[in-house]
Amino acid sequence: MTEVDVIVCTYNSGPILEQVLKAIRKNIPVKTLWVIDKYSEDGTVEIAEKYDAKVVQSSVGILEARALGFRLVETELFVNVDSDVVLPDNWFAEMMKYWEPDLGCLWGITVEQRTLHKAYIEAMYRFRDPTSYKLTHLPNMIARRDILCDLYVPEGLKGKSFGNDDAWILRWIKDVKKARVKNSPIRCKHYSYGGSLGTKTFWCGAGCRLTHLTKFSSVLLRSLLAFPQGVFAALVSGNARVIPYWVRFRFEYMVGFLKWSKYIDLKRNKKGHIW
């Protein structure tokens, strides 16, 4: 099996990083494991070095960190894994069954491990093929180096650690490089930092506003649909708490979108908690 470089961007990622890197080493034929770290203070670097990673530290924003990693890789195909995503067994081998020569990138499905969020997602997936959702999440991605090694980061996005950076990357692949993208049904576990809904939802909404890739009408519609969607998911999952959870999720996302300047910059303390 062809070896590939792997990129993991980290920022006080210690709480889950060991599981992430262990799964990478187990399930990917790694040539070089690159960790792009934002000067973590929680033992992240030590964990990365334990798994024989080449650590590059930089204070740049998340999109710039990803671009830095894309420039460092040396293999024709490479893998990007987020520092809170744990790959399943045989991930790379199973993903490559869906790879096609003209693809710019291929990604799998990430399932949030928060109990209520997972209940909502699993309920929706029971009645609709997960690959039919045109999600822009790339926390487990196989991509071509020649497509992303020159990723452009505009001045307005430099220095910021914002959500929705993956949407910018997808736009670059499809609109600039004119390459196809595809998602596979391979599922990974996503362990969001912080342990609760809270600040991260505001942050993701703010990122959508910053990148100008999502219209307010779309965000508003999703907020209006949150209650009936929550009711449906509650009926399917048997958990009524999904309803207030999903309504709150969409409301906080909209608030983050509207007040983006307040929530745009991600901070994460030594326990991995976002504030």
Word description of this protein:
- By secondary structure, the chain is α/β, with parallel strands linked by helices.
- The chain has a domain at 4-194: Spore Coat Polysaccharide Biosynthesis Protein SpsA, Chain A.
- The protein contains 11 helices and 8 strands.
- It has helices at 14-27, 44-50, 62-72, 91-96, 115-125, 145-148, 165-176, 198-211, 216-237, 242-258, 260-263; strands at residues 4-10, 30-37, 54-57, 77-81, 85-86, 103-112, 140-144, 180-190.
Helix content: 40-55%
Q: Major sheet: order of its strands?
A: 3-2-1-4-7-6-8-5
Strand content: 15-25%
Which CATH architecture of the domain at 4-194 would you pick? Alpha-Beta Complex
Structural class, from secondary structure content?
alpha/beta
Mean pLDDT: 87
One letter per element, helices H and strands E, the order comes to: EHEHEHEEHEHEHHEHHHH
CATH superfamily of the domain at 4-194: Spore Coat Polysaccharide Biosynthesis Protein SpsA, Chain A
Number of E strands: 8
CATH third-level topology of the domain at 4-194? Spore Coat Polysaccharide Biosynthesis Protein SpsA, Chain A
Can you tell me the CATH class of the domain at 4-194?
A: Alpha Beta
Largest sheet: 8 strands, mixed
Radius of gyration: 18 Å
Low-confidence stretches: none
What form results from the Cα inertia axes? globular
Through-space gap between termini: 42 Å
The number of helical runs is 11
